[in-house]
Design goal:
Number of helices: 11
Number of strands: 13
CATH topology of the largest domain: D-amino Acid Aminotransferase, Chain A, domain 1
Strand content: 15-25%
Number of domains: 3
Helix content: 25-40%
Mean pLDDT: 87
CATH superfamily of the largest domain: ATP-grasp fold, B domain
Order of helices and strands: HEHEHEHHHEEEHEEEEHEHEEHH
CATH architecture of the largest domain: 2-Layer Sandwich
Largest sheet: 6 strands, antiparallel
Shape: globular
CATH class of the largest domain: Alpha Beta
Low-confidence stretches: 1-13
Distance between the termini: 16 Å
Amino acid sequence: MIGCERSRFLYFNVQMNITVLYNKPAARFTKDTAHVVAEEDTEESAVEVAEALQAKGAVTTLVPITEYDIKKVIMALPNDLVFNLIEWTGVDTPYAVKAYEYIHARNLAYTGAMIDTYLLSCDKSVMKKRLDEKGLPTARWKLFYTGDEPIQEDFHYPLIVKVSSEHSSVGLSKEAIVQDEISLRSIVKKRLAEYKQPVYAEEFLTGREFQVTLLEKAEGLIMLPVSEVRYTKTTDVPFLTYESRWDTTHSDYDNSEVLLATLTPTLHKKIEDMSMRAFTTFGYRDYARFDVRCRGDEPMFLEINSNPGLSDDEEYGMTVSYKAAGMTFSDFVWEIVQSARRRRVRT
């Protein structure tokens, strides 16, 4: 036992060499630049993470990857810890799958979600199905492949239409909110034609909106203080559209702020219980961020995000949460690293 404890002490106190692995935007964005801005923040995040880890004394190497050099890059990585910031989703998801396969072929230790959990974030319809299967609260929904599928009569309008395999609010605009079946079928068929992938409609939740960050620390899994999204501009549809997040020329741009949430003990417990359960049920590791909205006083999952974007930006819910917990950005990403290292020691 003494020898084991000594080995563990030495492991956690040697100088850390960390590879910060991230993907460049897929080549398709050189032709279709409509949403490239939502892809470019991955590199910005990687730079921030590398600098934050350096502040903790780690030696970091930034390693970009493209769909053309996945095997070459990963097979050449040093046998140290990989801080995994790969975010390929949608039609680019197969690149992420290939990257995970080579990481596992090398038996590299890495931060964040494993492939099965990562894929939940890549296809929201799969995520919704799994939430339902596990009895976790989420709005009722319907998946569409053609737009001609029967629609349940007991849907409570308004509904919101989402593209299954996109992220960063791609495909979300005010027209995505519909009040009746005719409008629903119209926008569903429009999105199917535009994005060439299934879309789904779910009941639009009109209550408070939260971003929930969970972190695995030495003492166990914790929920950081919850952040809340509040809408600052007058709008008939208060939610995060693509334009409000990314289009600086749009009137809805910057229409929200993220603040520390004030929760009743009852609401806090509901959010904590459902978030802890989702984290453990789906096998999240190290950290995660969940997007939650309420129907009245009942919180429900909008999305469950593995490998969410990391930044010291005050507009990030995670930033609000880790600062409310007394952490700097360096502290936060260092906790993620330490969680991954503990897992490596256990195995």
